[in-house]
UniProtKB/TrEMBL annotation:
Signal peptide: none annotated. Transmembrane segments: none annotated. This is Zinc finger, MYND domain-containing 12.
Amino acid sequence: MNGPVHQKADWGSIHAKICQLLIPLRTTMPFYNSEEERQHGLQQLQRRQKHLIEFCYTVAQKYLFEGRHEDAVPAALHSLRFRMNVHGLSSVELVPAYLLLAEASLALQHGLGRIVQAEEYLSQAQWTVLKSTDCSNATHSLLHRNLGLLYIAKKNLEEARYHLANDIYFASCAYGTEDVRTSGGYFHLANIFYGLKKMELADTLYTKVSEIWYSYLNSHYQDLLQARSQQTDLLGKQFVNDTGLASGCIHKPNEAQEAEAIRILTSILIIQESTSTKAPQKSILILKTLSILYYLMLEYSKAKEYAMKALSLAETYVSEEEQRVIQELLSVISAEEKQLMT
């Protein structure tokens, strides 16, 4: 990136976040007294490089899901450069970064120029995959998903459906059919059917996506509740680390997954609430899922807002048992919010 405008964009997007992490990489390696020390030093360097690769990639993903497409480009470019340094210029490890850059280009499209840019990144990714003998199902999935998005942008929906079907197939092979990493393919395919007014097909897929995210986030939520109930001090207060999660063994979704879940679930909720055949139970599921998500993100006011909306609908449309589940969620959120304020 050249020029003050691009440098400022680069700094605001990613460079400020990784500046301190770059210092050890740009420092000349010291003289080692033994081969064992030298190997240890190299391993530390490789770990730092891999951490930077994943960090930049996650930041770029998060920006994309949040709609901050201009910010995603510098972060994705940094991930690509670090991958080249570590893996070489023709490694399949470069493909995820190429695909992020392609997706950002498509999202930024202003006429033909951005589509052409996206096609260049995708061609590079395809060529790298074709030359590779050990390309994973996960990488094949990402490639087909981005090809699907490209053909959606080009209004070639038949080709888009073909690639999204392949995305779902490869993602299912890599992660299983009920994994959140597979759900993105279902979501984009549902959007195609929705645009074609094939509402029954679209609704089936949107429901599947909602159920996958609920299952995933509720599992984290239940693990968290269980961990907190087991780890109390003598005064009955919970030991909670600075992420809000009791004990180091419970992991919440990363920032990119959080942003993806918000984008997908709010999109489906808007569609459901705008259709003539509204399905309150499906809206309740999404509201409940969003509430759990924001709770895991420690955004208690948003979590409470969605839980209250879910409960309001539930009082009319679902059983008392289902209402009780939402009431319990609301109680947990309120207790956490109160504890935070005291």
